[in-house]
Specification:
There is one protein chain. By secondary structure, the protein is an alpha/beta fold. It has a single domain, classed as Acetylglutamate kinase-like (Carbamate kinase, 3-Layer(aba) Sandwich), CATH 3.40.1160. The chain has ten helices and 16 strands. β11 (180-182) and β12 form a beta hairpin. α4 crosses α5 (89-113). The relative contact order is 0.15. The structure holds adenosine-5'-triphosphate (ATP) and magnesium ion. The site of magnesium ion (MG) has 4 residues, from loops. Belongs to the acetylglutamate kinase family. ArgB subfamily. The record marks 28, 250 as: Transition state stabilizer.
């Protein structure tokens, strides 16, 4: 490549660097997107680049596949109801051990090796994420009330105390957050990482919320990629069953985040090398962008 070409490529990103300078961006790093070692390396480089051009990244990670692996090794069988992991006391111990002890620390090391200062936290630290028990309602037909199922220590976000994050961000650290919340009696709750990312994006008044997942973006009924969604499309996608399973908490949180003041939400493919950089710093959008209203 001509040396001038290299300079031109860097300069072409200048408007984005300027726009995002000092802005907070919450990145949800999906458990499925973090399996391949070279993609993990790419992810760390992308975050380091974001940091060094002046963005303040905050990372929330998942870890479903990693939890399943350890559970199976321990002879425990993962059970899901309505897409949520049934989490008894023993399962909660495994969830916390894997998310906070292994997955979180791996990401922290990966980022530190890429030349930025990352700090791992769970929702317990500084009471960052206060949880309340989530009830699961199962539809039983028109004439009967829904069945309420107890799935154990599965929570939703009740409150966020973001002070610890502002302290870290101001001192140039990148917070890496495991989606474990703290309940009313100090007990741990397993919370879907998408919900945590959405709630944190609002509490931090983030510029963007980016979901790095294992799919090209949100797909329509024919399986085609939807490049732009507005929040009014979200309920329909969920009600019609076009968006199911792991896409539901992303879309619900996207709606909450946009209503709560986050400017834009992106759902992008973590399997594509450097998809974060492509989405943020080029005019080639990848994946799905979710916006409040059509501009
Ligand atoms: N309409 C849709 N468009 C795109 N993906 C969809 C849709 N409906 C359901 N999905 C599913 O949502 C999945 C993404 O959510 P999933 O929870 O599996 O991953 P993740 O949230 O990135 O990772 P983790 O849950 O481990 O943090 C896709 O792999 C796809 O199977
Ligand atoms: Mg998920």
């Amino acid at each position: 490549m001509e040396i001038l070409e290299k300079a031109k490529i860097l300069i072409s990103a200048l408007p984005y660097f300027r726009e995002f300078y000092k802005k907070i961006m919450v990145i949800k790093y999906g458990g499925h997107a973090m399996v391949d070692p070279s993609l993990k390396q790419n992810f760390a480089q992308d975050i380091a680049l974001m940091k060094y051009v002046g963005i303040c990244p905050v990372i929330v990670h998942g870890g479903g596949p990693q939890i399943n692996q350890v559970m199976e090794r321990m002879g425990l069988k993962p059970v899901f109801i309505e897409g949520q992991r049934v989490t008894d006391e023993e399962t909660m111990n495994v969830v916390e051990m894997v998310l906070v002890g292994t997955v979180n620390k791996n990401i922290v090391s990966l980022l530190n090796r890429a030349g930025v200062k990352a700090v791992g936290l769970s929702g317990r630290d500084g009471e960052l994420i206060v949880a309340e028990k989530m009830k699961v309602y199962k539809y039983r037909g028109e004439d009967r009330p829904p069945e309420i199922i107890d799935i154990g220590r599965v929570g939703k976000v009740k409150e966020v105390n973001p002070q610890i994050l502002f302290t870290l961000i101001e001192n140039d650290f990148i917070p890496v957050i495991a989606p474990v919340g703290i309940g009313p009696d100090g007990e741990a709750y397993n919370i879907n990482a998408d919900l945590v990312a959405g709630a944190l994006a609002v509490a931090l008044k983030a510029e963007k919320l980016v979901y790095l997942s294992d799919v090209e973006g949100v797909k329509d009924e024919k399986g085609n990629l939807i490049s732009t969604l507005t929040i009014k499309d979200i309920d329909r996608l969920i009600e019609t069953g076009i968006a199911k399973g792991g896409m539901i908490p992303k879309l619900k949180s996207a709606k909450k985040a946009l209503t709560g003041g986050v400017k834009k939400v992106h759902i992008i493919d973590g399997r594509v090398p450097h998809s974060l950089i492509i989405e943020l710093f080029t005019d080639e959008g990848v994946g799905t962008q979710v916006v409040f209203t059509e501009q």
